[in-house]
Amino acid sequence: MTIGNALTFIKIGQKDGELRRRLVKTNSREELEDFLLQQNLKFTPEEFEEAYSLSLFKCSEHGDAQALMAFRLWWTLLVRSSAYPQPVAEEER
């Protein structure tokens, strides 16, 4: 696990809608972490925060900073919600 992985995740995650969709479909924290490991993007919460701070410091445009803050909020909510099993949608049964 490295800050480099977290920096890569932030950069890719902001642009790659398919990656975000696949992350949202995980059903547990373990599944979320396994998916990141498979993508060579494993990092700790502390590494994410450090990478976020570094990325925010490098933002020269207000819009870029806002997009980064929105991504951090999305990630924080996803991680918190992944601690709880997701209900299976009716069409997936």
**What summary fits the major beta sheet?**
none
Share of residues in strands = under 5%
Radius of gyration: 14 Å
Listing every helix as H and every strand as E from the N terminus to the C terminus, the arrangement reads: HHHHH
What percentage of residues falls in helices of 4 or more residues?
55-70%
Question: How many domains make up the coordinates?
Answer: 1
**Uncertain spans:** none
N- and C-termini, Cα separation: 35 Å
Average of per-residue pLDDT values:
91
Overall spatial form: globular
Derived structural class: mainly alpha
**Tally of helical segments:** 5
Tally of extended strands? 0
Structure, described:
The protein has 93 residues and is mainly α. It has one domain. The chain has five helices and no strands. Helix 1 packs across helix 4. The mean pLDDT is 91.
Question: In summary, what is this structure?
Answer:
The chain is an all-alpha fold and 93 residues long. It is 70% helix and 0% strand. The longest helix has 20 residues, at 62-81.
Task: Write the SSE topology.
Blueprint: H1 3-15, H2 17-24, H3 29-38, H4 45-58, H5 62-81
Helix pairs in contact: 1-4
Primary descriptors:
globular; mainly alpha; 5 helices; 93 residues
